[in-house]
Write a structure and sequence with these properties.
The chain is α/β, with parallel strands linked by helices. It has helices at about 5-25, 30-45, 50-65, 70-75, 80-95, 135-145, 160-175, 190-195, 210-220, 245-255, 270-280, 280-290, 330-340, 355-360; strands at about 100-105, 115-120, 125-130, 150, 180-185, 205-210, 235-240, 265-270, 290-295, 305, 320-325, 345-350, 365-370, 390, 400, 405-415. The model has no long low-confidence stretch (mean pLDDT about 95).
């Protein structure tokens, strides 16, 4: 690789290697791809002490940089989280291989047989912040779908990502697949990101995974197609006919299980009728759990609640902070979510199915949930093993982006001497 001071040349070289690797991966056997992922999982587990030591350097860097506790939590790796990475790699390895799947098959009067068949996208560029596990998730999913990938992790996770990436490369080599199939940008220099966004000759799609600033930059500057992963401004609406005990459990889990993930609840909407019947039980539970609740005029009267500003609605806090508002029924909740949501994940808690149906029909978020915590907005929880991100756009992929979503398709047309009149 060229001198790291020459970022355009470094990225050009990586792109050329990725394109060559993608050509081989397109016809790699399912068995070889699974073998690479299982070998990578073994390497991650056997080198867990090295990965944790690398992560300690990143944690110190994050503290010096002034990252919030929630962001430091996203960055941190321990043995349990490495175990989760290992299990994720093995789950992806065990999944059905999407490449070559026949999506549709039909015959035409002309004598042609036409099949629509899944095929890899080619080269995927993934730009992400903080969470080093994305290195494993993105590498695994791209490989499973027959794609080469160029990973650009956040500056905070630099050492952790390198340690995990080394395990992925070991897996590729052991399985006889090209080691350039999974590459990691070897510098923190942000010029590498700018370069990736214009590499139309080498990269087929960019997947940004991070905060509003990163995603906005990618969408503004990219000449390569983008799978957008916008903010997780997730709402939970508690309907008048919600079971109070269920609502309490879902709301607490949605906000407090892990505050730094994109599936965390950022705004609680409570039907006025529920509030009239049950009072501030949900708000009091949140404040008791240590959540700073910023409420509308009525909820701000509850002890421990501060008044919400307009900016608090439609904000991704990624912290123990939550906006809250009373609304007039499900239509009030729908109007609020349409105004302030990010089309990521929104949930309704109700025992009344027609109300849930109306919520599902009239909102178009990538994920809509009924009587379930928004924390389930995760590719692993959807049975995908892992995900690259939650796509909030409307083209190609929406919701959790797993291996199947990282494929396109081609048409295979067969005739028996067919000619067109």
């Amino acid at each position: 690789m060229k001198d790291l001071d020459d970022i355009p040349q470094v990225m050009h070289d990586m792109g050329a290697k990725a394109r060559a690797a993608a050509a081989e991966l397109a016809f790699a056997t399912p068995e070889s791809k699974s073998a690479a992922l299982n070998a990578a999982a073994e390497a991650c587990w056997s080198r867990r002490d090295e990965i944790i030591a690398a992560n300690e350097k990143d944690m110190a860097y994050g503290v010096d940089k002034g990252l919030s506790p929630a962001m430091l939590d996203r960055l941190k790796l321990d043995e349990d989280r490495i175990k989760g990475i290992v299990e994720g790699l093995r789950l992806v390895a065990a999944q059905r291989d999407p490449v070559g799947e026949v999506i549709a098959d039909w015959d035409m009067p002309s004598g042609l047989n036409i099949r629509r068949v899944r095929t890899p996208l080619g080269v995927v560029g993934v730009i992400y912040e903080s969470r080093p596990n994305v290195t494993a998730d993105a590498g695994a999913l791209c490989l499973k779908a027959g794609n080469a990938v160029i990973l650009r992790g956040g500056s905070e996770s630099f050492h952790s990502s390198r340690a995990i990436h080394a395990c992925l490369v070991d897996g590729l080599v052991q399985a006889g697949l090209p080691k350039d199939a999974v590459q990691l940008v070897p510098t923190r220099d942000r010029a590498a990101v700018a370069e990736m966004l214009t590499m139309t000759d080498h990269i087929d799609v960019i997947v940004p995974r991070g905060g509003k600033g990163l995603v906005g930059l990618v969408q503004r500057e990219a000449r390569v197609p983008v799978f957008a992963h916008l903010e997780g401004i997730c709402h939970v609406y508690v309907d008048a006919k919600a079971d109070p005990a269920m609502a309490l459990e879902i709301v607490l889990n949605a906000k407090t299980r892990r505050t730094g993930i994109c599936g965390a609840m950022e705004c609680l909407l409570i039907d006025q009728a529920f509030y009239a019947d049950h009072g501030p039980i949900l708000i009091e539970a949140l404040t008791k759990a240590g959540v700073e609740v910023r409420g509308d005029d009525t909820l701000a009267q509850v002890n421990g609640v501060s008044p919400a500003s307009e900016a608090d609605f439609g904000k991704e806090f990624l912290d123990m902070i939550c906006a809250a508002k009373l609304v007039d029924g499900v239509d009030g909740a729908i109007d609020h979510i349409r105004t302030y949501g990010s089309d990521h994940t929104d949930a309704i808690v109700t025992a009344h199915q027609p109300t849930a149906d109306r919520f599902f029909q009239r909102l178009d978020s990538a994920i809509l949930m009924h009587n379930a915590s928004t924390q389930f907005a995760d590719g692993g929880e959807f049975g995908m093993g892992a995900e690259i991100g939650i796509a909030t756009g409307k083209m190609h992929a929406r919701g959790p982006v797993g291996a199947e979503q990282l494929t396109s398709f081609k048409y295979l047309v067969e005739g028996n001497g067919a000619v067109r009149p």
